[in-house]
Structure formats: structure tokens, C-alpha cells
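Weekly structure sync, notes
Attendees: PL (lead), two postdocs, one rotation student
Agenda item 3: pending single-chain targets
PL asked that the sequence for the first pending target be pasted directly into the notes so everyone works from the same version. It is reproduced below exactly as submitted, 341 residues in total.
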Amino acid sequence: MNETEGPDGGPVNETEGPDGGPVSDAVGPGGDGPTSETEDRFLTTPAGLRLCYRVDGPADGVPLLLIAGLGLDLTSWPRPMVDAFTGSGFRVVRPDNRDIGRSARVATPPPGLLRQALARPRPDAYDLADMAEDTRHLLDHLGIERVHLVGMSMGGMIAQTLAARHPHRVATLTSVFSTTGSRKVGRLALSTLVRMAKRPARTPEESVTRHLALLAHIGSRVFPPDEARERAWAGAVWERGRDAEGVARQIGAIQASGDRTAELRRITAPTVVVHGTRDPMVHPSGGRATAAAVPGARHVEITGMGHHLAPGVLDRLVGLTTDLARTHGAAVTRTRTEEAA
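Predicted structure, written out during the meeting:
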């Protein structure tokens, strides 16, 4: 089912459209920031990879796993969003993906710029299935048999892969501004690629400036960012652990996974696919293709939303995820974010 939401959240009309490929850096929303009291925890996977994660909410809450995107750590999930989920009755788990944040760096060399541009991953590249296995090991570690999944961008791809390969572990799936891996859809805008192809930032100050500049490009005027929160997040994430080689290896993982459209047809979890109509990072066609591939998926396009978890869209995203979980038996109640209160 395809539908488009206006800036006020009301449905507008059904939509369709065309156009997917490589990336080279990422920018994220203001998350926990330096004042977070949430504890970093760690596990070691059977393959020996050390992963960092955090858990928020009641111990007996409904398990909800949030998977972040390319180059983004677990603090990229805005605190008001996490609080709204825990207030709704979820036990929220947020991992740092491998190669970012406080999770371990993989020992293989990163792909060079030419490989990235040509979408030719290294033979020793890990892929999205490996990242989905990291997530499965985290669920095992926490004793979670079945979970509600939310993934944004690359995190949406990881969530899709987990749902397709381990359907018994996934109760519902919310895929946010993500795509299928097909080069025909979800393509990165050239204007975004030019901005992202710059050399990595060398200082915290430069990193903050770069973050705000890229956010101004991939974000939205309809749903503007909270600049103070973004500035604080960008400064904190520099200290927490982000590096260009790890991001490059994550790009290699996306490219090594290729077109996953056929695999998405194996997803059995109730699914909602959310995308903005103004997304220069992952063209809206990526969301349309995802919804078309997943059997029975609901497709929601939010008018004016970019590639960013802005304050103005948080309540809608929490509501879509919570309503989906509640419709399929989860004992949760919808709580509004502080931005929408």
C-alpha cells in the first residue's frame, strides 16, 4: 500500500516514481549527546568481534532494536525518540555497528575511492549479512527471541536482511529511508556525492562544521534540524569513535551485498517502509522499491522529509512503529515525543 503524508501527518495521495548506488560518508541526527547517562555495554561475537550497545527502558518491556545507518553510531537515534519508545512500553536496544562508535574495527583494508566509485568491493569485504549476524548475536546475548526492528538507511538494509534470513526472530519491521541495493533505485544525488567526497575532517571543529553543512543539504526546510542539538551531537561523536576507514568498509558491505530485491520477497514480518519525498542521499524510489518487494508492506512517504531524523518527524516515526507493533500483538501504548508534546 502506497501513501504520502503531508507535513501535518495527514495522508495526501498515492505516489510512484523512478531511480540507487555508492556513498562515501554519512551524517546523523543529534542523539544522546554528551549528557547521556545511558551505559555502554559490550559483547564479543563467536567470530571474536567486540560490539558496543545500550539498553533503555523497562526490563520487561517489549524488545525494540534500533539499527543506525552508514557511519552513524548508536547515539544518532535522537534522545526524544528513544524516550518516546521507552514511554510506550518498549525495551530499546541500540548497537554500534561494526567499524563505528565503540564497536571493534575490522582488520581488513578499506576499499579505495576508485573501488567505491565503481561499486567494486574488495574480495575480503564483509557484507550486510555479516552485519545482520552481528545483530542476531546481540539478540542471543540479551536472551531476546523475537524483536521489533527499526533501521534507518544502511541500518534499514541490515534490518531487512535479518528479517529475510531469520524471520522467526523479527516481529515487525520499520525500514526508514532505505533501499533494496538495486542500482536502478535509491540513487545518491550527484550533489550529495560531491559534498561527501571531500577528505575526512581532521579536527573536532572541522567535523562539526562538515556535519552541519551536509545536514543543510540532505535535511529539510519543512522539518528543520535543531542546530544546537546537532552541534552537540557532532562534537560528542568525534570523541566517541568515528573514522573514515570504518565508513569505507561499511560502504564496501553495502556494495558487496548487491541487489537484494529477491531476498526481500522472503520477509514475512509485518512491515512499514517510510521515506521522505526530498531525499538526496537515498532517492525516494528506494523506499518505493523496498515496499514493492516486501509482501504486504505499507509504504508511507512524508512530504518534505529529507534524510534526517528531524524533530518534526520523530513523533510520526514513533507512531508508525508503535502502531505496527500494537496491531500485531505488542503490549505497547503510543507516547508522543517531547517535540510533539
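Discussion points:
- DSSP finds eleven helices and nine strands in the chain.
- The mean pLDDT is 89.
Action: rotation student to compare against the earlier draft before next sync.
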